[in-house]
Amino acid sequence: MKTMQGATVISQDQNLPKPANTTRFTPDNSSGLLADRSSGFTLIELMIALTIGTILISGLTKIFANVSLTYRVDNAIARVQENGRFAADFLIKEFRLIGYQGCIDPETVVTNIIANNPPVTNISQASIRVYEVGTGAWSPTIDPSIADLSTQAFPPIVGSDVITIQRASDLDVSLSGNLTADNANIQISSNPASFAANDLIIITDCESIDLFRATGVSTSGGTVTISHSTSTNSTPSLSKAYQMDAKVMRFYSYTFYVRDTGRDNYAGNPVYALYRRDADGNSVELIEGVANLQLLYGEEIAGGLTRYVPASQAGLDISNIKSIRFGVLIQSKSSSLTANDDATYALPGENIVPTGTSGATAVYLPDQSYKSMFISTVKLRNRR
User: Fold this and answer.
1) Which of 68, 77, 332, 357 has the fewest CB atoms in 10 Å of its CB?
2) pLDDT under 70: residue ranges of the chain
C-alpha cells in the first residue's frame, strides 16, 4: 500500500500469487430446451394477424360470390338472348310463308285438293287456325285435326296461344319430263326434298295447282317416280297433265304451341319449350325456355284499316288476317337473380304475371330465373 498526497492507492503486487484459473459458465442450448425469444409471437400479435386474415378471407369470399353471381347472370342473359332471337327469327320465317303455294297468285287460283285426309280444304282462305288456351276450354273450339293436343300428358299451357299454319316448302324440284296424262306418275331427276310415301305434295306451273298425297316414291336409273293412286287420294287424276315447267314441293301443316318439357329447372319448377306438330301428329321440341307465346292478328277491316285482335275476338275473319304480332317470354333454366322474380311481362294482348295474381290465367311460377320478352310484327307475304 502506498500513500500519495493524502490518497491511498491499492495496487496488486506483481509478485503476489495469481488466483486459480476459472471457467465462465455459458448456458448450453444445444438440446433446444431454451427457446430463442426473438423468433416467437405475443398473444396480441397473433390476435392482430388473425383479425387481418379474417378480413382478407371475408373480402375474397365476397369478391368470389360477386364474380360467381355476375357469371351466372351473364350466362343466363346470353342464353336467354340466344334462345329469344332464335325463337323470334324462326317464327318470323314461318309466318311470312303462311299460305305460300309456289308461283301462283293465291288470291286468284284455287288449289285442287285430291289428297285423302287433307289438313285444309282451302289453302288460300284457311291457311291459318288460331286459338287461345283457357282453363278447360279453347277459344275458338279446337279443330278436330289437333284435338288430341288437349288430352296429352303435357298439353299446351293454359294462358298461352296456339297457331296452325299451312304452306308449301320453299324447296322445289322440276319435272324431268312431261306428263302423258293427268293420272300419270310424276317423275323428277332428284329427290333433295326427301319425298316419301304418304307425304302431302304440291305440284304447280303458276297457272294451276294440285295437292295430293304420295302413294309411293321409287328411284330407278337416276329417275325418281312419285305415284298418286286412289289408295291415298280421292282420285288419281290431277287437274291437268303438267309439263316440264311445273314445280313439285312438299306441303306442310304445322301447329306451334308451348308446353311443359317434363324437365325441371334449379328450383324444381317446370321447364317449358316451343313445340311444332306436323300434319301426322308428330311433335318436336324446337326451343327450350319459351315460357309463353302470345299472338295478335292484324285483321283488315272496312276502309283498309287494320285492327290487332286475339283469337277469341268475336267476328274475327281469318281470311282477312294480313299480319301477325307475336311475343315470346323466354326464361333461363338456372338461378341468376338474388330474389324471386315478381315482374309483370307485357306480351301482345296479355300480361304474364306471377302465380297467385287475382283473376290471371297467363302466369309463371316465381323463382330466381332470368326472363326477357321478344316481340315482333310480321306481314303475311301471300295475302293482299
Assistant:
1) 68
2) 1-39, 69
First-to-last C-alpha distance (Å) of the chain: 144
Set of cell numbers at residue 94? 314461318
Residue 363 within a domain: yes
Q: Residue 24: inside a domain, yes or no?
A: no
pLDDT at position 28, please?
55
> What per-residue confidence (pLDDT) applies to 348?
97
Give the C-alpha separation, 253 to 382, whole Å. Answer: 16
Strands, DSSP E only, in 265-343?
A: 270-277, 283-288, 290-301, 305-309, 321-331
Cell 326472363, located at residue: 371
Look at residue 113 in the predicted model and tell me its pLDDT.
Answer: 96
Q: Is the pTM of this model over 0.85?
A: no
89: amino acid identity, one letter: D
All three cell numbers of 265, joined, read: 329447372
The Cα–Cα gap between 13 and 306 comes to 136
Of all helices (H) and strands (E), which one includes residue 89? Answer: helix 43-96
- Whole-number pLDDT of residue 126: 81
Instruction: Count Cβ atoms within 10 A of the Cβ of residue 216 and give its class: 0-12 exposed, 13-18 middle, 19 or more buried.
Output: middle
173 CB-near residues (< 8 Å, 6+ apart): 188, 189, 190, 191, 192, 193, 247, 248, 249
User: Given this model, what pLDDT does residue 5 score?
Assistant: 46
> Which candidate, 272, 59, 72, places its Cα nearest to that of 156?
272
Q: Look at the chain and report how many structural domains it folds into.
A: 1
Domain of residue 98 covers 72-379
- What pairing do the DSSP bridges indicate for beta strands 371-379 and 209-213? unpaired
